[in-house]
């Protein structure tokens, strides 16, 4: 990845290999500039944008899909975000366990104070970074939408709204709003044995002209909005340090009409590298096949998979 004559920040050579073990299994080997690395260590070295068929549910599917997409993007944009998210998950798990013990009268509410403080600190950091991310994503998203579907964009701007069950009152900080809502739901949380407010319950809403897409948009409009979101990810991450992220496309061309395919092909062609998978090579746009290298995965005689260069 990168060129020897490129600028210094493009010279990292990243190798990901699947190695067959003596027992017949397969393990993944990662090296950066020849030095072995763990997958987690690639976060600051290799940024990626993934576009897969399940992303077509991003608007109409479960809120957890949108939170995961937001968290993955935030983690690539801000290296410290993963620490906040991990700390929040740990505090949430411990607090939920304690709430169940309180419900069963095996613990007291006073014991919640420590985990309340941990939850508030990390939860406020998570939500603040998510909101900063949406601010940074606003213009790239609107621009990508206008590029893909100018007629739709003329009727309303595509936006992402952050939906929370701990909204800030006038003059409140994010942490203060979370603390207030924890106090308001204290009895209900003990009854349910679980934490009812916080970033783990928040959502991301795709809106056009102020209306939620999930309530009125056609499948085609939703596809357009999701594609715009992915292209906006590319633009925003590239702007971090001028290095385009690695684009991974998993069998998505069959889901897109010719116009959307053409926009995606133009973006792919401008990238240093991208990986596209499909079950049928003909599903990939001819213009893209003409500039790419095709590989085919076939079953071998021993039942394992091998890579062969496609015709």
Write the layout of secondary structure elements.
Blueprint: E1 14-20, E2 26-32, E3 35-36, E4 48-51, H1 63-77, H2 81-103, H3 112-148, H4 150-154, E5 158-163, H5 174-184, H6 186-192, E6 203-208, E7 211-212, H7 213-216, H8 219-241, E8 246-250, H9 258-269, E9 274-277, H10 286-289, E10 295-299, E11 305-309
Parallel strand pairs: 4-8, 8-9
Antiparallel strand pairs: 1-2, 2-3, 5-6, 6-7, 10-11
Helix pairs in contact: 2-3, 2-6, 3-5, 3-8
Q: Can you walk through the features of this model?
A:
- By secondary structure, this protein is an alpha+beta fold.
- Among the domains are: 1-41, no CATH class; 244-311, P-loop containing nucleotide triphosphate hydrolases (Rossmann fold), CATH 3.40.50.300.
- It contains ten helices and eleven strands.
- The strands form four sheets. It has a three-stranded antiparallel beta sheet with strand order 1-2-3, with no helix packed on it.
- Helix 3 packs across helix 8.
- The model is unreliable at 1-10 (pLDDT under 50).
